[in-house]
Amino acid sequence: LTAAAIGILIYFQFELRYLYDHFMQFAVSAAAFSMGLSIYLYIRSLRAPEEELAPGGNSGYFIYDFFTGHELNPRIGSFDLKYFCELRPGLIGWVVINLAMLLAEMKIHNQSMPSLSMILVNSFQLLYVVDALWNEEAILTTMDITHDGFGFMLAFGDLVWVPFVYSLQAYYLVGHPNAISWPVAAAITILNCIGYYIFRSANSQKNNFRRNPSDPRLAYLKFIPTATGKGLLVTGWWGFVRHPNYLGDIIMALAWSLPCGFNNILPYFYVIYFICLLVHREARDEHHCKQKYGLAWERYCQRVPYRIFPYIY
Q1: Which of 179, 195, 222 corresponds to the end of one domain?
Q2: pLDDT tens across 55-104, in order?
Q3: Number of structural domains found in the chain
Q4: What family is this protein classified in (predicted)?
């Protein structure tokens, strides 16, 4: 539906460059909307049954619960607000903004084709979004869905941070063109492919094992049994580091920034922020898994000593 709507707008010669010219206004408007949504979510959570409250957002302190989310999965009828916002508006908005930046670059610089740098950024990030939407069932096992409530943190992240911060590379290239050679483009593409392969194959191993650990095709995977009945993988990517999906994510984030060159730190804000985010999330995961799996988790940590970066961290 979004693609069809964009196609119609372009057909009727609507200037998507408008998104570039009013980037900050759109970001501020999205922030105001996310604040309004967060207030609504908190007010309605006050009437939610105890069993529907989030384990991580039920402290009794207003500011903390408002920020992290008081209700786990607020719904309007059968419509899950958190699940929808986690995948749809932010990710699709990110792609739309990137496309607008691509068209703005062509218009402003009077180009018949987008620059190679802009093509790489758009292609890499489009692949990431398509992968997330294609494998959307995988989000059901993430901490965002199973543990965190839907409050300001996720609302702002989904509706503001993802579309407007994750598109900074494309936004930067409009005002700061960076010509790269084909060999450099090939090297960056290889780096992105390596990151994507690690990210996707690690997530697929975990998700397939969780769905059906007795699948004969997964017989090569070794695991440590836990008291919960689940197994902790100690082979494949999960025997390499404890969070190989995070490693792949970070490699891809670096590949998205490299087409912008090295004249400004702005395009690298995302990868710097993302490393900080994933290291913090890994610490939360570590605490959660230690509580959940106990001795089995300690055995796993002995088998797999590195958390994200092999031989470093």
Answers
A1: 179
A2: 777 778 889 989 988 888 889 988 989 888 988 889 999 999 999 999 99
A3: 2
A4: Belongs to the ERG4/ERG24 family.
Q: How far apart are the first and last CA of the chain?
A: 43
What is the rounded distance in angstroms from the CA atom of residue 256 to the CA atom of residue 128? 11
H runs (alpha helix) in the chain: 2-11, 17-21, 23-45, 62-68, 81-87, 89-108, 116-134, 143-146, 152-156, 162-165, 168-175, 182-211, 244-257, 269-293, 295-303
Smallest CA-to-CA distance from 37 within 136, 147, 158 is with 158
Boundary (domain end) residue, out of 179, 202, 234: 179
Phi, psi values for residue 225, rounded to 5°? -70, 150
Q: Which residues contact 52 (CB under 8 A, 6 or more apart)?
A: 71, 72, 73
Residue 98, pLDDT score: 95
Name the residue range of residue 245's domain.
182-313
CB 48 within 8 A of CB 70: yes
Q: Which residue has the tokens 């008081």?
A: 70
- Say which residue the tokens 């018949």 belong to: 112
- Do residues 174 and 195 both lie within one domain? no
Distance from C-alpha of 120 to C-alpha of 255, rounded to nearest angstrom: 9
Cα gap 167→23, rounded to integer Å = 11
Tokens for 257, please give them. 């920034």
